[in-house]
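User: quick one, fold this
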Amino acid sequence: MSSKLRSGTLALTALAAAVAFALPAGAQQNLTAETASPGGVPHATITTLAELAAGAGIANFQVAEGQTLTNSLQNLAQGKTDVAAVPLILPFLLSRGAGPYGKLGKKKGAELVKNTAALYTYTYGGYGLYAFDSSSVKGWKDIKGKTIVNGPPRGAALNIARAIVRIVTGYSDGKDYKGVQSNWGQMVKTITDGTGDAMVLPITFPDTRILRSLGSGSITLWSVPKKAWDSKAMQRYLKAPGTAPWVIDLKTVKPIKGLTIVSEDGIFRAPGTAGAEMVQTSMSFDMAKALTKAAISNVKKFTSKAPYMANIFLGEIDPAKTGMCGPVPVKYHPGAVAAWEEAGHKVPDCAKP
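Assistant:
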């Protein structure tokens, strides 16, 4: 789509909100962008990029918030928006016409995904087991026979939570324990009302759901044990599309009253969800380079937006940490490659167009 917008307006759905970032005088271009609701990593990265782009006179962003990112990727691929926050599992599914893109079919999906490219990557957070200290669950092995809150009724989070429990313990939902699902909007209520004995859910440091739940009692959070982490099954899983290791030195995590984090060696290990700021491949070389340069040279600006932003691995380029390459079909935009290399980073060949 053309990046020019008449009168700086953007038509949004009833549930979306528009955030405009004003440009300094003389700036030339307007870009549309889509991201998730406020309060999470994808929203913070897109809006921070928009601020940086406006401040540097690169572009004027108009951001549609509260979007379903599955749809945002398709909109990007079809030229309906210029920039989108995208979990990297989605390009994989689109390229195969699978999952939410089943109606498109493999041929159409494979064609569409070729229209997209990445500027930079980040991690949404990891997954952990946690429970109130009053619970009978005192670690991963105690999951057997218990009721576990493990995500929303459908979607990637539920599948990831089930897979992690199976790899760590060998237990299966419905056979060895009872999984209970809740919509994200009701998740804190489900956590605090005693529905489950424990939770296996995505987390950040600090985690909003955990912070809101601490009013109901002290909580303990368990890392994936090192033995399970080093297993062939887990290492294979960490190479799955859209997955990246989320490994945090707990010395860098600010203590939270009422929360105990358990790891046998002071390192928190969890499979993480990899994401990227993505654009159309038709975006100009200069624009993609300027946006990427603005991001990777201002990492502290991103991390200052919220405490959890310090643990998203923004500024990483190693595919072992970013989720790029392997089965994920997305490459960096040529302009992004130039920005990374100009900043002194070696872009892996598997991620180059």
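User: anything notable?
Assistant: The longest strand covers residues 116-132.
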